[in-house]
Amino acid sequence: MIDFGYPHGPTFQSRLLALLVQAPRAMCSIIQPHYFTSPILAGIAHVVTKCHKEHPNAPLTYIFLKEAVKGSLSSRELQNWSLYKEEIKQAFNSHLSDRPHLLGVAAKYAKEYIYREALVLGEKSITAGKYEHVHELLQKAKISSDFGTGKTIHWRDLPHPSDYPHEEIEWIVDGLIPAGHAIVISGDEGVGKTIFLLAMARSITEGRDFLERTVSPTPVIYLGADVSKVTLQNYMKMMRWNPDSDFRILTMWTDPEAPMLDSNEQLNWLYKYAEKYKPVLIFDTFRDFFNGEENSSTETKPVLDAIKRMRSLGATVILITHPPKRGKSVIRGTGNISQKVDVAYFMERVKQQGKDLCRLTCPKKNRAGAANITLTIEKQFIQTPAGPFLRIREIKDLRYAERKQNGQYGHVLAYLRENPGKNQKEIASNLRMSDRTAKKLLNEGKMKGELSCAKGQRKTILWSVEPKNKSGPAAEE
Asked: Is the terminal CB of the chain with fewer CB neighbours within 10 Å at N or C?
């Protein structure tokens, strides 16, 4: 049989195998084993096709396919079992948000293959004088290549959730930057967004914790369309940062320059990097990367499609934006932008204990987790003989801690009004707080004169609310 092979490279073929493995019910009629140029991929595809043919309604699991493939290999092929196992694992774990694109390419190639094979066989029939057979071959090719409208529609052919394995969220920075998502960090000019993300990029590329958060080592490409060479180098000098090979930059003064997001020609090579390296892409600032009107949903759609494409290829995209001058929106421009991103952060200046700080919050949306994130940051410029040294650190929100403590103290008062004469252990257990916290709050109440204590059995200290506070301010809480 003639094997023309898929016209794309090994990476693309691996994604097609993942499509076949994750949705064999829909793909077995389109993706054939002999299409693959790699013997390993072709062997796995052959087992998938065979298993689906024998058990069309049975779900295909990783363990089942691994054992089925292993059982189909000869002793010589088993020498490469580790390669087979890695491809099977990758096929089940691949995130295929660009499934329509993969399916379109596969269907187009399958049609081309079917017609080419029909023409080759037709030429032999013409040579043999079997002209009627040529017509039959072309009709058969037309029916075989009609993957949609020409086939009977069955409910069972529609995708089912079990066709796609469950995927846990992976984190580039634990609890802050989810892998494979589109993230916005918005804030006024000069609030510190660039410094914050460069410090994060350093931790990500070096695999070091960022603000006491676990980091997954990942390549980073910083795209600064409007950042000057002097500014960027000064930031790195102040951070005492000599970037390793996992950090790269694209600006208007590099070669190549940073690509525009509304230029398909410039984006093609960036897509290749996104697919191969699964990097973190930082666009500073997002508005500088397209020429259209930012308030137009029509003109921003191709730009957002490019962001979604990079995300589907495995990249983590971070967009630096500015807020509007009026209104409560986090991101300036059309609402289309905030709708399409997965996480929207807002950075603002705050004062706490006389210090100028920055606070990062998630006021609008977070598809990767809870939206109650609050991160207060201090930028420290330490003067040294070699020039200023910049570092950032997280500052605990003291006001939040105080509010939380006051809330707990109110619970203690209310509990003791209803249950006087309880000891510290009982209070801590019933209010679900630590013994240390309970002790601190009880002593605080005693100092305020709102709580009293008495000795119980076996030297136990029993706590109650002072009678005078039953009609006082504490009773009103």
From this structure: N
Distance set, CA 336 to CA 101, 298, 308, 347 (Å): 23, 9, 13, 20
Report the alpha-carbon distance of residue 22 to residue 425 in Å, rounded: 54
CA gap 289, 221 in Å, rounded: 15
Neighbours of 371 (CB within 10 A): 15
Tell me whether residue 433 is exposed, middle or buried, using C-beta atoms within 10 angstroms of its C-beta: 0 to 12, 13 to 18, 19 or more. Answer: middle
Asked whether the beta carbons of 19 and 98 are under 8 A apart, the reply is no
Q: Which residues contact 408 (CB under 8 A, 6 or more apart)?
A: 431, 433, 437, 441
Q: Which helix (H) or strand (E) holds 20?
A: helix 10-22
Q: Report whether 322 contacts 287 (CB < 8 A).
A: yes
Contacts of 246 (CB under 8 A, 6+ apart): 205, 217, 218, 219, 220
User: Could you report the per-residue pLDDT of 202-230, keeping only the tens digit for each?
Assistant: 999 999 999 989 999 999 999 998 899 99
Which amino acid belongs to residue 286? F
Sign of CA dihedral 122, 123, 129, 135: positive
Tokens for 13? Answer: 């073929």
- Contact between 219 and 182 under an 8 Å Cβ cutoff? The reply is no
CA-wise closest residue to 474 among 453, 449, 439, 454: 449
Model confidence pTM above 0.90: no
CB 378 within 8 A of CB 199: no
CA distance 170 to 173: 9
Please give the helix or strand (H or E) that residue 387 lies within, else none: none
